[in-house]
Amino acid sequence: MQSHYDAELKDTVRYLGKVLGQTIKAQLGQEWLDRIETIRKDGRASYQGEGAASEHLKEIFRKLPDADLLTVGRAFAQFLNLGNIAEQEYNSVMNVDASIDTLFEHVDKANLSPEKVLQAVSKLNIDMVLTAHPTEVTRRTLIHKHKELANCLQTIHQETLTEHERARIETRIADLISQAWHTEEIRSERPTPVDEARWGFSVIENSLWEAVPEFLRELDERLEQEYDVSLPIDASPIQFSSWMGGDRDGNPFVTAKVTEQVLLLARKRAAKLFAQDLDNLQVELSMFDCNQTLRDAAGDANEPYRAVLRPLLQRCIATRDGISDYLAGKNVDRSNWIESDEELLTPLTLCYNSLCDKGMKVTADGRLLDTIRRVHSFGVHLLRLDIRQDSERHLNVFSELTRYLGLGDYAQWNEADKQAFLLRELSSKRPLFPANWDASEEVREVLDTCKVIAQHRQDGFGIYIISMASEPSDVLAVQLLLQESGVRWPMPVAPLFETLDDLNNSPEVMQRLLSIDWYRGYVKGRQFVMIGYSDSAKDAGALAAGWAQYESQEALVKVANEFDVTLTLFHGRGGTIGRGGLPAHAAIHSQPPGSLDGGFRVTEQGETIRYKFGMARLAKRSLGIYTSAIIEAMLFPPPEPKQEWRELITKMAAKGRDNYRDTVRNDPDFVPYFRVATPEQELGKLPLGSRPSKRKPSGGIESLRAIPWIFAWAQTRLVLPSWLGVMRAIDEVKASSNEAVVNEMFRDWPFYRSRLSMLDMVFHKADPRISEEYDARLVPEELKHFGEELRTELKTSVESLLKLTNQQTIMADDPKGKESMNIRAGYLQPLHFLQIELLDRIRKLDADTADTTLERAMMVTIAGIAIGMRNTG
């Protein structure tokens, strides 16, 4: 039986598809529309298992000239985009899985005291870190059109529309779809880090700026209804940080100059947004009655609120315009710029208190309170910029320096000698860096970055993350670099533990670091540690990485408690399963007990930012999901795993790691197969983001970033990194263990259940039939056995999962998620067959021959499949 959700969503998708069809007809004629419709029907039939339809698709594509293949690719990529927009709009309106309501239902059932709920709410500390690795394949100009289209869909679904109003909106929808069809969907060149940062600012301006205060208002109202209490006006349970313009790990385009530019552009955008808020407030706050404190600030003005706000508005305008002039190379007077949050909060709070004192609380709690809450959530810097750099770059600074000073080579010293040197210099009063030291360009860039940090205020920055950190000296080295560069405030430095070995060693590393008296005094009871999901999964497979992440977090919490340090774990999750992706609720509830006590910091990457926060209503829903999940986890912490559970999951993880590595690392056929069976080589030509697809240009598969690694396998629907070796390991351990204990783990342990839930989603996105089509056309005979073996394991794994979870079909417990993928599947199918045809043509060209039409068509299919799968990397 079809649900109301399915029927209405399908009707909207069909409507948008029909409008796109008319757009194509208007440009290319009826013959092309008929051709697209034939391909669409064949795609649906092929997805449903009709072999004749698959053969017909292949035959159509084989006969089409290159330019026509491009047109077909564009059409189906656009269909998928429209399908995603319809689903996003529908979810935001229906408020699927309404998070705050669900939370309060749980609270009521548990009969918890208001004090406990308030205590949990007061401890809320959610830091969303926007990153643009980026997996976002859609151009910003198209994102704007899609947002406008979503607004139209929201309006057209209103039952009170007149026929004239409906016709006008339908015309606008046709206009936007036509604009999108006639716009290049693939960037002509890679975005710069500054472009990425601007995109992040736009997400805040167009969505989060409205969503955050609205969400806090909704949360406040529910607390007041249920418990007769209110959120304090300075509550900031949700904050935002960014890596865009600060993440230089393997990205040569993120320089010190770029970081400074991004910091200033963020301040400019914040000044612009606060100027708009203040302009609205001074229009509304025309009252004359005020308390004495505000009267003292406003003097004898007839309109004291306006008198206090008007200078503030002028300073925001001066900041906005002054930064524009400064970046244009002009001499500017910075004396009137807004520098700190307090400069906004002090007069705003004066106005708020005065309104409350004079019986105008309803006005105080309107736009004024929204602005105050925006200051607490975003601040004058809009978001806090993290800095990320590889530990090797810091090591090279001190290696070059000690050689210059005649002290030997720091890189060759043992850990004890490195620590002794660093601690001695950290306590020294004299400068370490010689004035006449002519450092290399690479070292100079590291030092210049630290100087940029020193030249800006603490409020503009988040934390400094060290990639590939493995020793306490990695952290101390950054502290010394910051100190020597003039940073006079304690910037938090977070080691990032990425590989399996690094995760396993992380508790011992942090134990040694926190044992250092100087360091404990420096951090003043607060430590950040970043947990890497992408590289650990790429290194050891999904199950081994997941258990290593759990165990390391558990042990790190104990280490922090031992030293009486508040630990904030920073989760470097990607959007996909192979990079740690999970629905937020499941991800949070599978955390070890105590791991949320120091707050929750998590990356939001690429296209997942748009899917979660691209519209204000979607953003409110996403913020609610995070908030309710964290409050719930604090009120009802997950159980500590029993010893027998630990023993079994440890065995499963070890076998999963060995299974994964036997294929990926040890089988000599793996790399040759990977290169030909997936579009990995062609991915490098897609101008996705500002940073290269490999950390080292000369490196092989081991240097491939986790994003293209996942991306390549998702394109062929084998999605191999997310499941390889996992079910085989679980089955092996289960066969030799107490089945009752394994069943108990599934029933009572959120961590283990979430692993299987992840596989459930993965297996729904996987399609061995599609993978087989890639192999049939692209893989030489001597390697075809490899793909057959992988698909056999995939099919066996699906059967095992269904048996273990007592399900008849994949995603039986998530019919909406299942139907979401099914709606897009018919449009995805033609793109896969089209991509196979394109790969075959491109690879048959001479090595020196470039065919721009084929390459562009290839990029369109890559982007289209990513859009249809709802993830890239």
Strand content: 5-15%
Q: What overall geometry do the principal axes of the alpha carbons give?
A: globular
Poorly predicted ranges = 575-581
Strand tally is 8
N/C terminus separation: 34 Å
This entry's quaternary arrangement is single chain
Q: What can be said about the biggest beta sheet? A: 8 strands, parallel, barrel
Give me the side-by-side strand order of the main sheet. Answer: 1-2-3-4-5-6-7-8
Helix content: 55-70%
Counting DSSP H or I runs of 4 or more residues, the number of helices is 36
By helix and strand content, what is the structural category? mainly alpha
Q: Could you tell me the radius of gyration in angstroms?
A: 28 Å
Residue-averaged pLDDT, rounded? 89
Active site: 133, 538
Protein name: Phosphoenolpyruvate carboxylase
Cofactor: Mg(2+)
Family: Belongs to the PEPCase type 1 family.
